[in-house]
Amino acid sequence: MTDRQRYLFGDLLRQWRMSRRVPQLELASAADVSARHLSFLETGRSAPSRTMVLKLADHLDVPLRERNQLLLAAGFAPTYGESSLEGERMTMVRSALRQVLAATEPYPALAVDRHWNLVDANAAVAAFTRDAPEDLLVSPFNVLKFSLDPRGLGGRIINLGQWRTHLFERLDRQIRVTGDPQLTSLLAELKAFPAPDTDEEDAQMSGDVAVYMRLRADDQELSFLSTVTTFGTPLDVTVDELSVESFYPADDKTAEYLRRLLP
Questions:
Q1: Which spans in the chain are helix H?
Q2: Which of 2, 65, 73, 96 has the most CB atoms lying inside 10 A of its own CB?
Q3: Class of domain 3-73
């Protein structure tokens, strides 16, 4: 391991520890090393073993893509593969994904990657995409951009201010977790979309238990509560970055509308 690699690893480790707000002593205890040794790792005075890199990354809950970066910075080969979702190795993952999406019908559900690009969706997502301009539906289809674009879902969401704030908070948390600059750029793009006055929406929200998406459809107001599902204990970067967002009806009127939407 070269001096440059030690310093690079140490800088990355310190950045992750500080972003997680973990004291040096706490991390040292979790890794079963002295605080002095951890300090030497962060300053480049000591070189870590592969086991130590993975142990520190695990305690700091570093995403798999960034764990590979830590390993490379320390002079080791990446541990976690990044498979194409269409490859043979991912057959079971694709099958599980489609079962989850199909089981959610007649309610909308979609799978996205780390950057919120659409991976797959069930037929009920037509409740969101119907009547949208064709140029908004081309690949890569970014669901966050579509949801705030006035020509997309943004033109139909009644409580757009609330939903916009909700999405920004979620994306900001994801940026803090991953440190991904592409997500930072995405957040800047989203903030460029028109922002409505939220005073009236905030008043309507006072008795709610969660943020609902209230959507205009066929002269009706639909109300959705979203949930997010991820794969447990992933060992592949692609799987680690997949998530499924399902939209369940928040009232009987919405449930009935969705049941009538699918044949």
A1: 3-19, 24-30, 35-43, 50-59, 64-73, 91-104, 126-129, 143-148, 160-178, 181-191, 199-204, 237-240, 252-261
A2: 73
A3: mainly alpha
